[in-house]
Fold this protein.
Amino acid sequence: MKTYEISVKGIVQGVGFRPFVFRCAKKYNLNGFIKNDSSGVFILIQGDEKKIEDFLNELNSNHPPRAKIISIERKIIDYEEMKDFRIIESEKKEIVSTYISPDIATCDDCLKELFDKNDRRYLYPFINCTNCGPRFTITFGIPYDRINTTMSIFKMCDECEDEYEDPLSRRFHAQPNACYKCGPEVFLLDKNLERISCDWIERTIELLNKGKILMIKGIGGYHIACDAYNSDAVKEVRKRKRRGNKPFALMGNIEMIKENCYLNECEERFLKSPQAPIVLLKKREDSKIPEEVAPGTDELGFMLPYTPLHHIIIKNINFPILLTSANISEETILYEDERIDRLKDIFDYVLTHNRKIFIWNEDSVVRCFKGEIYPIRISRGFVPEPFKVPIFSDKTILGAGSDLKNAFCILKGDYAFTSQYIGDMGNIETENAFYKALEHFKRIYSLNIDFAVCDLHPEYITGNIISKIGIPHIKVQHHRAHFVSCLLENNILDDAIGFIFDGTGYGEDNNIWGGEVFYGNIFNQERIYHLNYTPLPGGEEGIYNNWRYGISLLYQSGFEKEVENFYRDYEYEIIIQMIKKKLNSPLTSSIGRLFDGVSSLLNVCHRNTYEGEAAIRLEKIAKRTEDHYEFLIKDNVIFYEDVIGNILFDLKNGTEKGYISFKFHNGLSDLILKIIKIEIEKKNFSYVVLSGGVFQNSLLLNLIYDRIKEIKLNPVIHRKLPTNDQCISLGQTGIGYAFLRKNHF
């Protein structure tokens, strides 16, 4: 007879771990107890030593699917004889080292009950169990017990309490457990936010059928919804949200998705995963989804219903719904009930409920690449799950991230915690959201930030935030952070070559970088190539009005006389003078801007109504050919002038724009391969890093990925974080770690 104290750390609260341990103990005839604490779970186990070993093996190999064990520590102790195995009350310690589970889509067992007319929770929109439901967004403290969630105001009825106490129930210690008698309720509000007395299901379906625009409360915030087949309703949402041409997300059942999109096994697996993200899919030619949903692209972003409320709605309609974040412009998603009147100019009705969302969480967006996940936006379903990195920091380091697509990252020990998606830091709402999210992470994990890293850009709001907080910090260059982020995410400490292509990043020479090639590792990054600097007339204005950069490309390439032919309907003479006199025309090496300019030259897109629109439209018209345009490399500078000349030649000779687009993409792929072949003769590396927003371009990524493998090197891309600026903060923490180590802090 032996007795062990066992401490299990990781995501082991709110995922059915204690009930699982209880059943394992009973299975092996072991006595003792288990409890949540601030470090994870604590187990006291007593019995035959061989059976204890079997018990521990089962903990490791057969734990609940949403649990994630980081460590199991045990020590043998002397203890009085125990007669049974129990789950006892949680304990709070000074040091927090447990992790909260992300919010989980409704499981199949709960769905069966939801639509079973004989079940007491038939059509109850808050049905959940230990395998599914809200977690992160309703939790404000650790341990993960009901008292530390927004469910604390709802006292369980006797039936729910019995389930909660029954080790054989799926709801054994399920903290959000509730039913019609004791839990939250759904109700409908009119435009004046007056409660409507009605059957909310029947009336919601009626309103959607009539083309009305609803605001619907989900797990991590409110969404704007309408009938996705109703083009007038879609246009009205776009107009009211001031959305430009940015694509909307959609929700439907799997049959609706297959009717409108091509779907492979990998994509279907992502759709049906517990994270239930938006998945970018190829639109079918016979799709009934109107062009207004996603103008200028052949992709649709679909998700399956992931809450009981969503399931009830989709079950009762025969069309998919548009489901986009409820916000103004690029603000964080609205989630606070008391602030919904801010959006009264957008919605006609509000479908809401009285379970409070403590912290927001946007929908995640992914695509399938080579059978694995390729993230575009990581948030609901993934955050706040940490991941391991190949370094160990004694200091707790904060990476503040970028001002675009912001998410911060905290490095603690050998784990990285990335925040939910915060958004673009261009307004006070998003800035306040940053503060709230940071305080939330610090509180639930008892973190004291020792050191911070922010972007080199002198005007970035994230840098100002860190200065206001008063944390010791350094500033690091944007693209170095991209490079290090991809290395850390892929557990690489060896030297690598990195192609960091994006739109904008403040450079160490005070120019705007964005077409950079680095060589090195997390401790040192040498900039070995960059795209030729080109004036960006108007700075930020030249990004939105990308026709300005088209003029700049022509001028820089020696084709000033051609400018009038391309831009006679624009103020081209003023732009030429700005370039010549160097008036508000910062220099840039950005590949993202190069895409913008080429898109304009081909008359594909002259104005970016959202980030990357011109590049996306250029990619979508591409038609495969074996040809490519040749980039010149001289003195480690990449020159595009010949590419522009050849594009003009092809245009004059009537070459179809789709072929020109493909030759441009193919030329960039060839450029990457050319640089790799030059450098492999001089340097020792096997990894090729591809990071930056340009590599969201699936055509370019596909073109280069296999070519790298063909020459027996390893292409390294993002799989846990997006390749866009949401990954920056992880790289910042890595460079911060290297700085502290070098300077013996």
